[in-house]
Amino acid sequence: MEILDVLPTNFGYVILTYLYSWTMLTYLAVKVGGARKKHNVKYPTMYSDKDDLFNCFQRAHQNTLEVYPQWLVFQTIAALVYPTVASVLGVIWVTSRFSYAWGYYTGNPAKRMNGSYGYIGLFGVIILSISVALQLLGVI
After folding, report:
1. At residue 1, does pLDDT exceed 90?
2. What is the C-alpha to C-alpha distance for residues 58 and 15, in angstroms, rounded to an integer?
3. How many helices (H) and strands (E) in the chain?
4. With contact defined as beta carbons under 8 Å apart, do 86 and 138 qualify?
5. Over residues 85-113, mean pLDDT
């Protein structure tokens, strides 16, 4: 049995969503690298004691990395049964991380909340994952 025989037909959308998330992570990493040069923050220093704007770039990336593993797990579980819906929710979450970062990049951390619509995507795949778990347990 091949993997293409096991995965749902629309799982290709999920893979494209993963590629979109990789693009987002790469973008955020490049922005931190540029901010390091511009604000003269040398490695291995994570945060600047002198430059809050650099810290906003760093936090936008770091916070995304802190949430990313959980999103990947729930995205994958949800996508095994609901690939199209999970992909839409995934695109919402990934896009929101751009909005979150762009808000942070203004230097006003409160503007990171421009990306708060991403909770629709995150909580959506969590709820779908719970549904998958309950179906496997025969509860629903």
Report:
1. no
2. 27
3. 5, 0
4. no
5. 98
- Cis omega (within 30 of 0) on the bond before 83? no
Give, in order, the Cα–Cα distances in Å from 102 to each of 21, 80, 120, 129, 134: 16, 32, 19, 29, 38
Q: Which of 33, 31, 14 is nearest to 93 (CA)?
A: 14
- Looking up tokens 């896009």 gives 95
Q: What is the Cα–Cα distance from 93 to 84, expressed in whole angstroms? A: 14
Q: Which two tokens stand for residue 36?
A: 């390091």
What's the longest Cα–Cα distance across the chain? 58
Residue pLDDT, tens place only, 56-78: 999 999 999 999 999 999 999 99
CA quadruple 41, 116, 69, 98: dihedral positive or negative? negative
Contact 58, 35 (CB under 8 A): yes
Q: Give the pair of three-digit tokens for residue 104.
A: 């942070």
The answer to whether 31 touches 101, Cβ cutoff 8 Å, is yes
Q: Which two tokens stand for residue 19?
A: 């590629």
